[in-house]
Structures are given as structure tokens and as C-alpha cells.
Amino acid sequence: DDARYPEFEGRDLVTRHGEIPLINTAEDGATIGDVFGSQLPQIEESDQATLLTLSIGGNDLLCAVANRPDGALLRQVVRAVGDALEFLVDSLRRARPRSTLIVSTVYDPSDDTRKIPGVFEGAGLLPLESLHALNERIRSLAATTPDAAVADVYAHFQGHGVTSAPAERWYWARSWIEPNASGASEIRRLWLDALDATAED
């Protein structure tokens, strides 16, 4: 929408590269198990140049925290999700060897306050150490994978959650774990910036 987001006029992929097919395998509420069970099988093997955007891990953490595990178990969950993400990247690389990957970190609507309205309010402070550990694993994976880049959604979204004025929020007011239209546009910004950085490299 060039009228609403004029700074992105001409930065879309079709303007840059012509007509390109889109395979949207995203599923609302998907966890890493869903990625392997229903999303990955939709990616057919091909030597075509492919851009892959990955946004994985947030729902896995939410599911884990909902069960109120102790710290040791939560660390195991983070390791398991990180291991699965690495295996996923390897699988995608085999299916699409000429792919560029953009891997997104997981945002924190609490803005480091450890509290999100309407989310586990009776469970006490949220264990953000697990979120930080997962995001570090994601950053490391992007840094060590050829033709990959990180879109650091976590860092970019800080200060636009519960601590911000309503006009500055990038989350949907009815469900703080979802980005609003401005938030979605900011994720778009990070993906485009990451793609540009990868092209320069």
C-alpha cells in the first residue's frame, strides 16, 4: 500500500525481480512440529533461486511456558527447538540448494517487563531467559549458514510493546502476541534489509 507506506514504494520483490511465485506455508499457531508435519512437505525440491523466510520458535515457547516447567526443563525445550531449527535449515538447503534464508528472532511484547496483558497473567513473571537463549541460537544459526541472514525482530521491536504509547505499538491490541499492521510492515522492513545485506555480501 504505497499510500500508507510510501517509503516502501518500489521495494517489493515483484518490482525488483518481475513476476515470481509465492509459496505461503505459514500456519497460525504453528509449532516446530507443525513445520515438519505440514509445512516442510509443501516445499518441493528445485534448483530454482528461492528466498525463504523463517519465523519459528515463539509458539513453542508459549506452549512450554503454559505448562509452567522448571528452569531445567525449559532449557531443554529451547535446546530442542534450536536443534530442530538447525535440522530444518539443513532440510531446506537440500530441497532448495540455491536458496537465500532470512531467519527471524522472536519478539517480546513485554518490552523486558516480563508481563504481557492477557498472557499467563497468573503465572508470574515470564522467563525471558529462555527467549533470549533461543534468539541467540537463531542469530548464531544465521551467522554460520551460507546465504543466510538474521532479521532481528526482537531487537527492532523493543520499546514498541507494553511500555509504549498506543500510537507507537507494533502489536495487535486484542492479542499482544500478534503484530498489528505497523508491526507486520516493520517485519517486512527487516526482511528487505536482510535481503539487501545478503545481496551485498
Verbal overview:
There is one protein chain. By secondary structure, the protein is mostly helical. 44% of the residues lie in helices and 11% in strands. The protein has helices at 13-17, 32-39, 58-66, 71-95, 128-144, 153-157, 181-200; strands at 50-54, 99-104, 148-151, 171-172, 175-179. The strands form two sheets. The chain has a three-stranded parallel β-sheet, sandwiched between helices. Strands 4-5 form a two-stranded antiparallel sheet. The protein is globular and about 50 Å long.
Fraction of residues in helices? 40-55%
Overall average pLDDT: 92
| Sequence of strands across the biggest β-sheet | 1-2-3
Shape field: globular
Distance between the termini: 29 Å
Low-pLDDT segments: none
Give the strand content: 5-15%
- Let me know the largest β-sheet: 3 strands, parallel
SSE blueprint:
Layout: H1 13-17, H2 32-39, E1 50-54, H3 58-66, H4 71-95, E2 99-104, H5 128-144, E3 148-151, H6 153-157, E4 171-172, E5 175-179, H7 181-200
Parallel strand pairs: 1-2, 2-3
Antiparallel strand pairs: 4-5
Quick gist of this model?
With 201 residues, this protein is mainly α. The chain has seven helices and five strands. It has a three-stranded parallel sheet with strand order 1-2-3, with helices on both faces. Strands 4-5 form a two-stranded antiparallel sheet.
